[in-house]
Amino acid sequence: MAKEKSIPFYIGIGIVSFLLVVMLISIFYTPHDPNAMDSTNRLAAPSLEHPFGTDNFGRDILSRVMEGSQTAFIIGISAVSIGLIIGFILGASAGYFGGWVDEIISRFIDAMLAFPGILLAIMLIAVFSTGMTNTIIALGIMSIPSFARITRSSFMQYKKYDFVKASIAKGAGSIRIIFHHILPNAISPTLVAVALSFSGAILSESGLSYLGLGVQPPDPSWGRMLKEAQPYITSAPWYVFITGVAITLLVLGFNLLADGLRDKQDKKA
Amino acid sequence: MQTPILSIENMDVSFQLSDGKYKALEDISFSVFPDEVVGIVGESGCGKSLTSQAILGILPKNAQVDHGEIAYKNNNLLEMKENDWQEIRGSALSMIFQEPMTALNPLLTVGKQISEVLKKHTNLSKKTRKQKTISMMKEVGLSRAEELYNSYPHQLSGGMQQRIVIAIALIAEPDLIIADEPTTALDVTIQAQILELFRKLKQYRKTSIIFISHDWGVIRHICDRVLVMYAGRIVEQGSVTEIISNPKHPYTKGLIQSIPDHQKKGEELYTIAGKVPSLKERKGGCPFADRCSSRLDICKQQFPESVVMEGTHTVKCHLYLKGAVETL
Q1: Which A residues, 89 through 148, put their C-beta within 8 Å of a C-beta on chain B?
Q2: Treating both helix axes as pointing N-terminal to C-terminal, what angle do B158-170 and B126-139 enclose, rounded to 10 degrees?
Q3: What pLDDT digit, counting tens, does each position of B136-163 carry?
């Protein structure tokens, strides 16, 4: 098969890897201490010393944006993992076993889908209190339905294939068929969902933190920085701008990645 | 007489459809003896594949065996627990599928797919499994077995894929192999090679085979005995030579008459008018009655009992029941 060039895919990869590198650097090095305040230098305009300026406490915005990327990635990875694992187990059992197992799981998923995602997350946080861990759990639960549905439909599709019947005829049990024979075939549609959920989780985290429900100080978060920047939108517009750009870039990167992956799949099919 | 490897007694299989239950197989009884190749012939939709799926317990979700017995060496498979059945599948009974492209998992190497059977059913080490796999691949005629071990199904041709499927079925040295139209999806030259392979296997392996086909030429070359199925019933059975030279059932006669032959050059080929009644169209009586040229009055009312013609040759047709000849 000829390799098709997918420009959005490569742009997506570029943006995501750039931010990933920034995140990795920030673990070891930031230009300034992201939490060091300097009351004499509040809301300073971008300069050589502070390329993105300083915030209302005189903290270096560049360092804080870098530090915030860690939170974004941690939340994205953990929330998607939770959603993926639980969603996969639910979807795979529903699709593979069918019958009443499918009925129960599908109705459960339908019930979850009936709640708007962000409201569900707000409700969970209201019950379990705020903080990084609870935000991750809430966003993870939020992404279960989409993973469950995708896994279910690919399992229903592949269950009918002859090679699944052939492996039953070889003497394989359900567990082996699910993990060894169907799972590898179901990976590529799931990959698209992973990329999309990743950006969804980061966006939701920013939304929650903006509302003050997500990540709490002192953990840095882009969403909360946006909220802190809001009162100074006229006096220090770069603060809002830089934070907004960071969120947009990451979400855009993952969306382009997902689009590109889907295009590649469509061409294969 | 030898004890059969597999014997099926009065098996009925039905489909549960949205508007009711429909019988797809009725009163299927036959045995397979050691070292014997039994052919099953019939048009599409006669229940050939369904019979083989019932034996392995891989019927579609909406189909079930209503009653009857499928005995493997005197153990009734239908009463077996799922786990015990899993042990038998692949090691004692195995299956060769019609389309090799869909019967192989596209994402696993062919070597893995063959040795997987050994992993499930034996305690051999990884190394021995690989050795056995490679020698099995050579046995089914894949000469570059070492190279092919790590290739994926799409890298192989149709004929090579079918050889892999056959290797999967053979690797655990089963007592009985069910081959569901193993040559239908292949082109003619490859068909000939695969049939040659079957003939060799029959000679050296001493495995029993149930060979499903709608090609009399293939059946004649491979099988010892043949079952003719029509609309979910076995209408005639007997040795291949007996049935081909002396068919009794009007359906079998029709099938054999419609084989193209160089002696018939220039003549119009015989065909049986009409088609197999679908599940929902089947009524009482002989299902072939509507298409039969020698139909009697009784045919539409009652399905005939089995009549023994000669030795193992039996037929289910009113024409051969006592008293039928007078009313003709």
Answers
A1: 98-99
A2: 130
A3: 888 888 888 888 899 998 888 888 888 8
